[in-house]
Amino acid sequence: MAESNPSEEYEIISQEDLADFKAAIESGNLTEAASKIQQNLDSLESAKLDIAITGESGSGKSTFVNALRGMGDEEKESAKTGVTETTTEPTPYPHPNYPNVRIWDLPGIGTPNFKAHTYLEQVNFSQYDFFIIIASERFKSNHAELAKEIQKMGKKFYFVRNKVDADLDASKKRRKLSYDEGKILALIRRNCIESLEKEDVKSGQVFLITSFQLDKFDFQLLQETLEAELPKHKKHAFLLSLPNISVKVLQKKKEALKKQALKLAALSCAIAVIPVPGLSVICDVAILVKALSNYCKAFGIDEESLAKLARKVNKPVDKLKAEIKSPLSQEISSDLIKKLLTKAVCGSLMVVEYFLSTIPLIGSLAAGGISFGTTYYMLCSFLNDLEQDAQKVLTVALYESEL
Questions:
Q1: Cβ atoms within 10 Å, residue 50
Q2: Of all helices (H) and strands (E), which one includes residue 169?
Q3: What separation in angstroms does the CA of 159 have from each of 156, 270, 322, 349?
Q4: Which terminus of the chain is more exposed, N or C, with fewer CB under 10 A?
């Protein structure tokens, strides 16, 4: 296991989180403190996020829905796609690993049954957190009218220009000598914004994407924009559900999960000082089994996620698995966690020493301090390892060609 630097790990702890942890310890009623921490964790896990994908028929809405869920168009639970309109009513597609995150494939606007002025009422607009309005060519009056109606209702919307890869390919064939990808993308972007402005919709930003390669063009910018504008509890759900398309996404997931790790360690600490023999060990193992299993899913290195990725990139799953060095690549069981706990003692003592200087009361709660330190050290250490493994898998899957 790669060694981690405790001083670097603590930098991700916000002052707010630290204050919450200190208050929980100093409250004196640690049973109540444990309950409050658990409620906080439960609220993160149960946060619902409903994303509405809309646009004209044929713009690639359903393929985009699948891409957001890390899936291709031919999998059993994929949204139906085709050259004709395949979505006739609002259809929710839960994320395969985070079912509370639902991507809604809405019927195409402008079709006989769905006109812009009545569209929002027909699709029950109030249940969505925000709308992504997709076009595959230029934005038209239907897109603009829908945006205006969404704005009246007080919801957020984002314009996405899909299928830019097709435009680039066509341009490359027509202008082999003068082809310039940057200039073509700038032209597409300007045309989109001007089309919307002609319809009296001010949009300083249109995101250019291709659903078949989310690691290209503006998808990462779209992701960062959504992340910045979502409420805190929904932001966590959104981050974890993102497809692992770049090192930056993996790093963001690690940072989010490290903040959550502090709360898990605080829960472990609070339970450890309850005078029931063996309770702390049982709870610590249960906390670690659940958390580390979730980490593997978040980084896409659990069995199911690796199998899907292998099919998507048409590479042997064993080739992807060969990049994973963490012991968590095997089944995460109580026995495995107990073995790993015995190796974490030195690191946990460093964590306790750090927090003694910050929250002296931990010193009088020896069992709680050790339990806190062990849990936090293990979670952070494995997060570092799993992120590195996920980066290697990503490199082999997306960038390394078969010999």
A1: 15
A2: helix 164-174
A3: 10, 47, 40, 50
A4: C
Q: Which residue has the tokens 């339970």?
A: 271
Write out residues in the chain with pLDDT < 50, as ranges.
1-13, 274-279, 346-347, 349-351, 353-354, 356-357, 360-367, 402-403
Maximum distance among all Cα pairs of the chain, rounded to whole angstroms? 77
Tell me the CA end-to-end span of the chain in Å, nearest whole number. 30
| Cα–Cα distance, 155 to 147 (Å, whole number) | 10
CB 215, CB 222: distance < 8 Å: no
Q: Amino acid identity of 347? A: G
Helices (H), 131-278: 141-152, 164-174, 181-198, 219-229, 232-241, 247-272
Q: How many whole angstroms separate alpha carbon 262 and alpha carbon 375?
A: 9
Q: Kindly state the helix (H) or strand (E) to which residue 66 belongs, with its residue range.
A: helix 61-68
Q: How far apart are CA 90 and CA 72, in angstroms?
A: 20
Q: Domains, the chain, ranges and CATH?
A: 6-45+244-399 (no CATH), 47-238 (3.40.50.300)
Spatial distance between the Cα atoms of 9 and 307, rounded to a whole number of angstroms: 31
SS3 189: helix
pLDDT at 153: 85
Written as six digits, the tokens of 113 are 């049954």
CA atoms of 22 and 28, how far apart (whole Å): 11
Structure tokens at 397: 């899957």
Place of tokens 């409050």: 36
Strands 91-94 and 101-105, how do they pair?
A: antiparallel
